[in-house]
Amino acid sequence: DAGITQSPRHKVTETGTPVTLRCHQTENHRYMYWYRQDPGHGLRLIHYSYGVKDTDKGEVSDGYSVSRSKTEDFLLTLESATSSQTSVYFCAASQGESNQPQHFGDGTRLSIL
Amino acid sequence: GENVEQHPSTLSVQEGDSAVIKCTYSDSASNYFPWYKQELGKRPQLIIDIRSNVGEKKDQRIAVTLNKTAKHFSLHITETQPEDSAVYFCAAPYGNKLVFGAGTILRVKS
Predict the structure, then answer these.
(1) B45, B96, B103 member nearest A42 (Cβ)
(2) What average pLDDT is seen over chain A?
(3) Is A101 on the interface with B (CB under 8 A)?
């Protein structure tokens, strides 16, 4: 769907370790997003990007950073992972702003022990 | 605030019956309202969307209605089938972000 690939698909790591998740898209979409999905909370926005090197915070950005050095790649980093960051992470991309459809990747299941 | 209320949180229907899920939003400037379906272990997938210049949109067995005055929109699924069982999310824009509802678990009993 819209050529969005997330890696890794699954990861188990320990508290305090750094973790980087990658999102790659092939459709030249300008906007890219990182969400986390937890039971009872739906999809919550972590960070988003509106162009190369242009990023902004979402609803739950504490403990996360992002980078976008190329149009096709959007990286999410947990500098020092905590157990509260155990979640399923979805990347999405869209042609334009919030009034355009977002297309999602397959998700990354991250467990922090 | 930036909030999208979605109801009900769970919905069980008999195969062949209709299902309705409702969402409310607070920003009168919101002009785009998508609905996503997420099957277990899969990605959310866009199933239908509506823009604020129309009141209703249909695509086969699914339809979305929008009441801008009341700031709510609804997803209607007719003649439900077991494969309609999934989690459904609504969303509305706030500024340049989409805010999602908490989701509705739809179970279609055969």
Answers:
(1) B103
(2) 95
(3) yes
